[in-house]
Amino acid sequence: MVRASRRTSALAPWRCLAAAVAVALLSGLALLGLAAPAAAHASLIGTTPRPDQVLAAAPKTVSLTFSDAIDLKTALVQVLEPSGAPLAVGDPVHVAANPNTLEVTLPAELAQGTRTVLYRVVSADGHPLQGSFRFSVGVATASATPDALVSDGGALGLYLGIARWVAFVGLALAVGTLLLVVLAWPGGLGVPAARRMIWYGLGALAGASAASLLLYGPYVQGTGLSGVASSLDYGISTRIGTLLLVRLALVAVVVVALALWLRRARESGRAGGAGPVAATLIGGGALALTWSLATHSAEGSRFVTLPVDLVHMMAMSAWLGGMPALLVLLLKVKDSAALTKAVPMFSRTATICVIALVATGVLQAWRQVGSADALTSTTYGDWLLVKVGLVLGIVALGGFARWWATPRLVAAHAVPEGRGSRRAGVTTARSAAVEAGSARLGRVVALETSLGAVVLAVTATLVATQPAEAAHEAALAAHSSASTNRALLAASPADLTIGFRLAKPAPGAEPVAFREALAVPEGPAKGRGFVQAVISPAFGGLPNELHVSVTDDQGRPLPVGSVLVDLRTVGGTQERSSQSPLSSSGQGHFFSAFTVPRAGQWELGITVRDVNGTEALVIVPFEAQVMGA
Q: Using alpha carbons only, what angle is made at residue 174 by residues 172 and 179, rounded to the nearest 5 degrees?
C-alpha cells in the first residue's frame, strides 16, 4: 500500500502535466478552427471604373487598388462580356510602380453593355483574395453572373493554420530547451528527456514546414487537396514557398551542426559558455527570420520592423519554449544542485523576455493596429486582446513562481545537512522539502506551459488574420463605396427597373408619375423607356452627384430632349426644390451635382422630356446617410 501510494504521488505531477498539455492542444486546435475562415490580408479598396458605374465612353483600362501589396506574378484579372465570354485583356501590371495596384488594358472598341471584372490575387504575405464587380458602357444591361474563380480553399486554410502552429511550437521547444541547457543546466545534455525535446522540436518544425510547402500551392490556386502534386511547382515559385524551402534547408544545417556539437559536448563535458549561447541565438534567429520575411514586417521600413519582429519571436521562443525543459528538471530529474541554478536563471531570463515582448509588442501593435477603433472593431484586434490577456495570465503565474515558489525551493535546498545522528534526519527533511518545492513550482510551470501553447495558437491565428489597421481602412472604404455606388434603380431589363411612358401632360398639370419597380408600362414600345439613377455618396448636408441613364426596351440610349430633376421631402409638408436640367454626356447619360440639405428620406423627381413635348415623371426614393454613420 505504501509503495502504491508513493507511486501514485510520483505520477501525480506528470498526470497534471499531461492534462495541461491536452487542454492546451485542444484549445489551440479550437482557436485555429475558429480562425479558419479568416479574411485575406489584402482587401479591395477601390476600382476604376468604380463598381456599377455607367460610363459615357469605353475606358481604356481597368485598375484595382488593394489595402496591401499584391504579388504580380500570381495575379489574375478577367473581364467578361454580358454574354459571359472573356475579353482579351492585357497582363496585369502595377500602376506607377505602386505594389498595391493592378491594371489591365481593354480592347480599343467596346460595345455598349455591362462587363463583369473578376480578380484573384495573392497579397505579399501569401494570402489569396478573389471577387468581382461590374461597370457599364453607355447603358447598363444584363450581365454575366459567374461562379467564383476557384474554390476558396477553406479546409486548406485550416490545415495551414495547424501546420503554422506546430512549426511555432517546434521552434520554441528547440530554442527554449537549448537556451536553458547552455545557460543554466549543462547536465541536461545527459538527460534523454531533455535531448528528445530538442530533437522533437526540430522535427516538428521540419515536418510542419514541409506540410506547409505542400499545401501552400493548392491553397493559393484554390485546387484543394487533389492539387497538391500539380501545384507544388507553383507554390515553390512564390515568395512564401521560397522562404519555406530556405527554412527546411536551415533546419537541415542546424540538425547536422547540433549533432556534431552534442557529441563533442558529451565527450568534453562542457556544454555551456558564450559560444553555445551565441550559436543558439544565431541559429534560432535565422529560422525565425523566415517567418518575419513572410509577414508585413518585410514591408515599409524593414530595417526597423524586421528586427522588432525577430526579437519578438525569439523572446517568445526562449520564454515559452524553455518551460517544458524546466518541467523535466523539476518533475523528473529533481537534481537539487541543478534546480538552484536553473530556476533562478530561467526566472531572470523570463523577465528579460517579457520586457522584450512588451516593448516589441507595443511597437507591432502601433504599426498594425493604428487606432483604438481598429483595435475594437476588427478580428485582428479581438485576437490581439485575447493574446494580451493570456500573456498577462502567464506573467502573473511567473511572478507568483519567482516571488513565492522559487525562493522557497532555494531555501529548502539551503537547509544544512547536520552531523552525527541528526545527519540522516536532516538530509531526509531537506530532500522532502526540495521535492515538495519542486512539485509546487512544477504545477505552476505546467499551467504556464499550457497557456503558452495557447498563446502560440493565437499567434498563428494573428499571422493568418488581416492586420487591424488594414481591415479597418478596408471596412471604411467598403462603406464609402457602398454609399458612393448605391444604385437606386438598376436599368437592366433583367434586374430592377422603373419604366415610364412619354405622354403630353394636361395644361398646368404634372406629367404622369411612375414609381413601380419591375414594371413595364403597357402599350407599344414607342414612347416607352427606362431610367437608371445613381446617387453618390448619398450623404446629407454634403455635395452629391447624380447620374441618370435613359434607355429603351433593348437597353439602347433613348433620344430625349432634356432631363430635369427636383428634390422632394417625404412626408410632412412634402416640400420640393425647383427643377434643374441635367447635363448630357451623350449616349443617354445625364449628370449633375447637387446637395441634399440633411440626412433622412428623400425623393428625386426625374422629368424626362422629348422634343415633341411629351413627358414622363419618374419618382426615385432614397435615404441620405450621415457621413461616418
A: 90
Q: pLDDT-based confidence at 29, cuts 50/70/90?
A: very low
What is the C-alpha separation between 68 and 260, in angstroms, rounded? Answer: 44
The per-residue pLDDT for 306 is 84
As to burial, measured by CB atoms within 10 angstroms (0-12 exposed, 13-18 middle, 19+ buried), residue 209 is: buried
- Please check whether residue 412 is in contact with residue 433, taking contact to mean a CB–CB distance below 8 angstroms: yes
What does the alpha-carbon distance between residue 15 and residue 412 come to, in Å, rounded to a whole number? 25
3-state per-residue secondary structure call for 291-343? HHCCCHHHCCCHHHHHHHHHHHHHHHHHHHHHHHHHHHHHHHHCCHHHHHHHH
Question: pTM for this structure?
Answer: 0.62
For residue 620 the three cell numbers come to: 426615385
- 512 pLDDT exceeds 70? yes
**What letter does residue 604 receive in the DSSP assignment?**
E
Dihedrals phi, psi of 245, to nearest 5 degrees:
-65, -45
With 60 as the cut, is the pLDDT of residue 347 above it? yes
- Angle at CA of residue 491, ends 487 and 495, nearest 5°: 85
Q: What is the mean pLDDT of the chain?
A: 76
Q: 68's torsion region: left (phi>0), alpha (psi -120 to 50) or beta? A: beta
The closest alpha carbon to 451, from 301, 621, 320, belongs to 320
Given pLDDT bands bounded at 50, 70 and 90, which one contains residue 491?
very low
Which helix (H) or strand (E) is 162 found in, with range? helix 154-184
| Pairwise pLDDT comparison (247 vs 194), residue with the higher score | 247
Tell me the C-alpha distance between 612 and 559, whole Å: 11
Half-sphere CA count of 493, side-chain side, radius 13 A: 12
Helix (H) or strand (E) holding 208: helix 192-221
Angle at CA 270, nearest 5°, toward 327 and 263?
Answer: 85
pLDDT at 420: 42
Mean of the pLDDT values across residues 385-397? 85
